[in-house]
Amino acid sequence: MAINPSMDAPPAVKAPLGLPLLTYIQQDPLGAASHFQRRLGDVARLNILFRRIYYFFSPEAARQILVDHQADFTREARLLKIFESFQGKNVLTTEGADWERQRRILAPGFSPKRISGYINLMRAAIHDSVREELPAVRGGSAIVDVDALTTCITMDVILRTLFSQPTTRTEANRVSTAIRALTRQSMREVFWAFIPPEWMPYPGRAEKRKHLRVINTLIATQVDARKSGVTSSGSSQDVLEMLLAARDDQPTSASATLTSKEIHDNCVLLFSAGFDTASSALTWWIGLMATHPEVVARLRDEIGAASAGASPIESVARLPYLNATIKEAMRLYPPSTALFTRVALRDVVIGDTPVKKGTLVVIPIWHLHRDPRSFDEPGAFRPERFMPGAPAIPRSAYLAFGAGPHFCLGQHFATIEMALIAAHIVQNFDLSMEDGAVLPEPVVDIALKPKTPLRVRFTRR
Ligand code: HEM
């Protein structure tokens, strides 16, 4: 539908306390969006520095933007440029034909069949990390900073599945610190009035270069070793091998394989997209398990029944309740809540709202996931919502992995990884929190993280 001049633009909003809107959103993106929704309902219009920004709070609008009208929207060029300055040109930072080609080449490497080949590497990483970080002797008990624990495990999983190499704790910490610092720097740059060129000194540039060296050296060393045959044995199932062998099944004039630079840039992407999201999801899942012992008891029954005589991949597939607890944890605490935006490529109408070319639209996943129109008692932890036979969830009301052509490439990877980690934890540990303790408030810190440390007691069973 074309924009009709008589259509009303949605009402505008001001920040409370006279704060500039941009600072308000930067400091508290979830609180700011809640304020906009309370004041203005399903569509909120802001004007910031001559920029039109619309928040759409209904699942129908999210569906239209991400799926039905996907060709009328693109990811924001400015955002892609900022991320390109540390990730290079990979499937996350490109658009158009370049993105299509990379996505086509990479997709088979992230199919459920291919992911099953990474399972042994994932399991080795999980066992080693848990052995190092958690009590090993039956009855042994420790209070653990859950986010630090899930960071170790998920970073180890990414390093091991990428390169087949066991890494030291120091190495894994260096990589996660570097990736988090680089992503935080990118998030700061998003709010700057202009993007400084690399030759110009700017706040954080020296640190950015230092962290980039850590990541680039690690990847270059691993790729060189693989190409020269030093680390080839036993690694035929890892992600690097997949990247080196990947072929375009619809070759265009561009290369039918990934270039060396693209392989490097997609390795950086896997670090940045692949570990903090899963770490965030598992952190909240562990907190929810520590506060819902009845759910843990049901999970142990399910896992016990499913694992008898089954391979790990089969048993993960036979764990609907476990998978439902993870989905429900990501509904309450969606890891990727920041920067879920698109820009209108042309004038378009979403629902009955006219959206002009160039408008930035925000999809507020947190608010969609807690909308009482889509989820009964939205604040309650109820894994049953995701069990087979439960009433259908409205389309695009649940967007933990996104929707449309850019939906998460690593969805199967993350689903299997999280199920393996979660099953290992409930089978081996009792989880509890101090009497009366509740889950911390969430904060958007790259992914959705606890504002104050989430501490859980792990007792070996
Ligand atoms: C719980 C874990 C994860 C969550 C919640 C998550 C969430 C998301 C979301 C919401 C998007 C869509 C962004 C948009 O449309 O703008 C996305 C895209 C993406 N994710 Fe994930 N992700 C997770 C894990 C992973 C993992 C493990 C990998 C890789 C191994 C990965 C790789 C990607 C890539 C490459 C894209 C961009 C796809 C494209 O633009 O074509 N993600 N993810």
Automatic annotation (TrEMBL):
It comes from the Bacteria. Keywords: Heme, Iron, Metal-binding, Monooxygenase, Oxidoreductase. This is Cytochrome P450. The keyword Oxidoreductase applies. SUPFAM superfamilies: Cytochrome P450 (SSF48264). Coiled coil: none annotated. It comes from Lysobacter korlensis. Pfam families: p450. Its cofactor is heme. Belongs to the cytochrome P450 family.
